[in-house]
Write a structure and sequence with these properties.
The protein is of the alpha/beta class. The protein contains eleven helices and 18 strands.
Amino acid sequence: MVRAAVCTAVGSPLEITDIDLPEPGPGQVRIKLAAAGVCHSDLSLTNGTMRVPLPAVLGHEGAGTVVSVGESVTHVAPGDSVVLNWAPSCGCCHACSLGEVWLCANALAGAGNVYARRASDGSDLHPGLNVAAFAEETVVAGNTVLPVPDGVPLTDAALLGCAVLTGYGAVHHSARVREGETVAVYGVGGVGLATIQAARIAGASKIIAVDVSPEKEELALAAGATDYVVASENTAREIRGLTGKQGVDVAVECVGRAVTIRTAWESTRRGGRTTVVGIGGKDQQVTFNALELFHWGRTLSGCVYGNSDPARDLPVLAEHIRAGRLDLSALVTEHIALDGIPAAFDNMVAGKGGRALVVF
């Protein structure tokens, strides 16, 4: 038996309980988790913004050590340090055939599987976003497991599974920030902090961090922001004032709220680019009129998982880490145990802190 955080139903509190894990079958890997990041997407599963089969063990940003492998698994072996990829590509759908693996139509197919059972009554449990990282151990499909690059501490490597790939990819793959450009980052959580660091690595000349909390200024500046703006109805105007009345070249929205998306778009210059990383609900309606779309010539685009290919991007990120350009520990503001996840969710709702990291 292992301890795990179970979401029993939308709107219900997480239950920290014992579960029974089977031994890995063909193509599967059993992992002892070292750490798991608490991401806003996990919160979105509990409140119904995103839907997966329930009850489920949540957690999709994790890293750990291989305990055992099933038949036909050859790319990892017991004792290997690995990072979990919650959205593995199938390699055969239309998006994958185009090389857009982050849009794979079958990436979340494993979330519907029964992968474990509750110890108390034997009831079925699903693996949340494929990997069920909010547990002491998990059993996953082999294609969700990638070796941790050399030189990356195992605990820190958990953040590579979502926050860092998303933030780095938003800058380098979606917005394609060029050296000397100006960037605004909306939302200074785990993904926002990774985005700020990525913008610094890209050579942005000005990085303006925006958040509702004045307390996050120190975090933002430490990550590489040059300016900090406390969100208000005048945010777009303040950002234009910081950029010669032009607006930034690029805005990255990491919140997922209609008002923030609209403000991010308004804060870019004529011809600027806005990338939306935050996951909002269906009730978050963003509106534009036809004339302003024509006049401003701005680009607004969605960004899934940083438009990243983990197999391609992890070695690049590892090189930035080894060279000291990317500091994973700077994203983490709290180390917690499994039973601290509900409080971490509350802090997320309240806009407090960066990434909370569950350490096993």
